[in-house]
Amino acid sequence: MVTVGIPRALLYYQYYPMWKVFLEKLGAEVVVSPPTNKSILNSGVTRGVQDTCLPVKVFFGHIIALVGKCDLMFVPAVTSLGKKSYNCSKLIGLPNMARALIPESPPLLAPEINCEKGRYNLYRNIYAVGRYFTSNPFKLKKAVEEGWASNLDYWNKMSDEKITPLQAIDGKLSTDVNASSFTVALIGHPYIIYDEYVSHRLISRLQKMEVKVVTPEMVSQEELDAATRRLVGVPHWLFEPEIIGAGGYYLETGVDGIIIVAAFGCGPDSMMLSIVEHRARESEIPLLPLSLDEHSSEGGLVTRLEAFLDMVKRRKRVCV
Ligand code: SF4
Fold first, then answer.
1. Contact of 313 with 182, CB cutoff 8 Å
2. Number of domains present in the structure of the chain
3. Residue with the nearest Cα to atom 1 of ligand 1?
4. Whose CA, among 84, 146, 253, 267, lies 20 to 30 Å from 312?
5. Using one digit for the tens of pLDDT, what is the confidence trace for 280-297?
6. Distance of alpha carbon 23 from the chain centroid
7. Residues near ligand 1 (Cβ within 6 A)
8. For 70-83, what is each residue's pLDDT tens digit?
């Protein structure tokens, strides 16, 4: 049986259930890299060029962690999912970067997902992946349909049950927020906020501080898209709904505070952050921007978090 490695980084948090079902239905065995740790981060950092953002360096570390454990590495280039909105250039160029910087990697399975090029191109690229495993078109069609169905289930489950990708994939993290005294929206790319090593266990840390944490995936895609349109009109970036849309939605529906976590040096993040920051100031809702890179210290993050939560608590006491 052919073994396919999926790095536990970047788009893993959005599409892993779909990719897993698709590949397994084709007859592949899927192996996922372990959760990020110091050695994965360090090995990725040694391969990234200077202006590579932290999440991409982490991704390289996960590819290295899978070397020797799989026959093929799944690294799709998700360029556009339609409506003229595009992914960041680093995500689009991921297969090329991976081939150049990690030559010891097994061959990449790297379909381009670009809805802007039309359905025919999309189907052709997906079917090219399928042909690695089967020449039976019916098996391939079924794998595509079941993969897509599991993707819809995954996103509906998160927004209906108000859970995070980690809970939906692994059943991880406590949802017991009965003791919470206030609600904070944690906003950022899934590959930052749900990677516990990169985010310094931000979600569980906040929950231990008796904060109810709400995240972008707990809102339906329709509501995120509508909130994005109200704030900026038609989005240019594929991920605007998860940052700008979620920020706008939670500011409109009312939370006690917002924490936005961005990758240091990320151009799209800095623009999206300033839009949400501006709206938060108008709404008089406290916002804490956090910028992470491989040098970010846990101590510094905790100090800022505590100061922010003190302010949120004081404000809440004054307002009630
Ligand atoms: S959007 Fe920002 S954080 Fe994400 S891959 Fe691109 S540069 Fe990195």
1. yes
2. 2
3. 88
4. 267
5. 999 999 999 999 888 778
6. 20
7. 53, 55-56, 88, 90-91, 189, 263, 266, 268-269
8. 999 999 999 988 77
